[in-house]
């Protein structure tokens, strides 16, 4: 019984600290390094996808060892991921054009089925030549990356394709 009381005390103190130590917006900058200017949007078979900015930005970008990685997610677990290998800054990059090209454009739904996704890359293109894509990085100033993308994603699990058009992104590089 004494252990239960101690555990409850720790839980209560932890909850008290969690609820009192953080306000909704501590620094007034909108919660993101870019003041809410970040976005990842795309039309998926004509339906709008937009990465979430509320209650927090679910958009990230990293450039490391010649790889650009950008991801935008929704609060309900849907996501778009961009990975460009041999990244060298602003320019146009392709996916699905050769088995040796590891660059990837992908859409998935974590909460529905984390093993399910629509992908455009060189490996998928071996089984479905329609799974190609284009990414154009319009600007990369070392702190923010911005561009456009489109692709046909192939789902190897159910052998379906989805069309991803009018994709746009802007993200702070971490």
Q: What are the secondary-structure elements, in order, as H or E?
A: HEEEEEEEEHEEE
Sheet with most strands: strand arrangement: 2-1-11-10-9-6
Can you tell me the residue ranges where pLDDT is under 50 for at least 5 consecutive residues? 1-34
- Count of runs of 4 or more consecutive helical residues: 2
- First and last CA, distance: 48 Å
What oligomeric state is this?
single chain
Please tell me about this protein's structure.
It comes from Hyunsoonleella flava. The chain has two helices and eleven strands; from the N terminus they run αββββββββαβββ. With 174 residues, it is mostly beta strands. It has one domain. The strands form two sheets. Strands 2-1-11-10-9-6 form a six-stranded antiparallel sheet. Strands 3-4-5-7-8 form a five-stranded antiparallel sheet. The longest helix has 20 residues, at 2-21. Mean pLDDT is 80; it is low at 1-34.
Write the layout of secondary structure elements.
Layout: H1 2-21, E1 39-44, E2 47-50, E3 59-64, E4 67-73, E5 78-85, E6 91-95, E7 104-109, E8 117-120, H2 122-127, E9 133-140, E10 144-155, E11 160-172
Antiparallel strand pairs: 1-2, 1-11, 3-4, 4-5, 5-7, 6-9, 7-8, 9-10, 10-11
Please give a quick description of this structure.
The chain contains 2 helices and 11 strands. With 174 residues, the protein is mostly beta strands. The chain has one domain.
């Amino acid at each position: 019984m004494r252990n239960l009381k101690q555990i409850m005390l720790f839980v209560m103190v932890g909850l008290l600290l969690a609820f009192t130590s953080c306000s909704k917006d501590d620094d007034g900058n909108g919660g993101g390094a870019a003041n809410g200017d970040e976005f990842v949007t795309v039309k998926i078979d004509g339906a709008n996808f937009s990465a979430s900015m509320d209650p927090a930005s679910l958009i990230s970008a990293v450039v490391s060892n010649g790889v650009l990685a950008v991801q935008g997610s929704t609060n309900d677990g849907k996501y778009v991921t961009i990975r460009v290998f041999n990244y060298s800054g602003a320019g146009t990059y392709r996916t699905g054009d050769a088995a040796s090209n590891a660059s990837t454009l992908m859409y998935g739904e974590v909460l529905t089925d984390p093993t399910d996704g629509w992908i455009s890359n060189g490996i998928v293109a071996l089984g479905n030549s329609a799974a190609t894509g284009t990414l154009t990085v319009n600007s990369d100033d070392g702190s923010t990356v911005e561009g456009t993308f489109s692709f046909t994603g192939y789902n190897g699990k159910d052998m379906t394709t989805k069309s991803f058009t009018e994709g746009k992104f802007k993200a702070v590089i971490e």
